[in-house]
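Predict structure. Chain length: 247.
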Amino acid sequence: MSLREVAGRFDSGTQPLVDIRVLVVEDDPTFRVAIEAALEDAGCRLMLIDDGGEALRGLYSFRPDLVLLDIRLPGMNGLDLCASIRSMSDVPIIIFSALHDTSEKLIAFERGADDYVVKDTPMEELTARIAVALRHAGPTTTLEVDEGYTDSCVEIDFTRFSVRVRGEDVDLTPTEYKILTLLVKRVGEPIPPQQLLRRVWGPEYDSEDLVKWHVGHLRRKIELNPEKPELVVTRRGFGYVYARPAA
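Prediction complete.
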């Protein structure tokens, strides 16, 4: 079945988009208005956000069935945001971009996108691609996320990107924050440097020195003694692991 035929099925009411929740993360007002009109006509319930840094908060509060995500956003790059969403949820993600860029498309799929649509695509086709993504995801998609992580030493609020260590606010860079959250979500499990490199920086990077350097800076901010770390520990031959402190 062609995309146009799928869209026609939605228009005919055979498979309506009524009450499908779509989170739209887009900062271009003209394009946002066009998406809003097309999806509301199809029966979708929308949350529109124009800042990448606010998108995860919308993810928690709105619990969408699908995410439409621009790449170039204020607050957080859309590709990084895609990876963050995918690490927490199997919600379908459709990336849209102004560029016909094959390398960017490949990175988007590597980060977990289900589809990639350029902005000159007709709204009818975008609606059809939503139909396909939802059909592949099944009748419902449950967003399974935690709003934060807490132990006797570290507190992380995933919705506000904030970190407290031993009761004090800690100012982490975006890269340090990504490394720490990846580690705490797999407490006690070593993550190889190459896997951290791919998840944090992307497939185009191949230097493990980047990981070593940033982990060192992270330790200086959260460890009592960075030379003898107790939270972010190295397991030789396996990788870095977050060692949950005793209560």
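Summary: The first helix runs from residue 3 to 12.
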